[in-house]
């Protein structure tokens, strides 16, 4: 299941993964809170508590985008749409947060005015992570992975 995740990432040796965890996200906005909790527990297990604030912010934005634009955008198809999944992968010097969703659409950074309540998600992802990107899922008809990379101290 992880094989399509490697495609499109910055060069990393898949054999050097020192930790990997994933969770399925229910098709409701409460899943953002669940994703943060999952992230906290995973980072604590990897002794990376100091990164939680930045990583949790990025995870929240990626999950919110997946829910808003891929999962909940077509409520009439909710039963037919595969759920989003959050993947956390740790290498000796890198941490990758990746969110898989069923949408074929590319993520687009919005231009939000100062009074807008949304539209800054990818700007925040770019600001708090060391790099980010996305790629279509290999070997399936629909879906993509949006990822963010953090360099570890």
TrEMBL record:
Protein's UniProt keywords contain Transferase: yes
Residue stretches making up the Histidine kinase/HSP90-like ATPase domain: 27-134
Keywords: Kinase, Serine/threonine-protein kinase, Transferase
Keyword Kinase: yes
Domain of life: Bacteria
GO molecular function, one term: protein serine/threonine kinase activity
Transmembrane segments: none
Name by which UniProt lists this protein: Histidine kinase/HSP90-like ATPase domain-containing protein
Organism listed in the record: Streptomyces lydicus
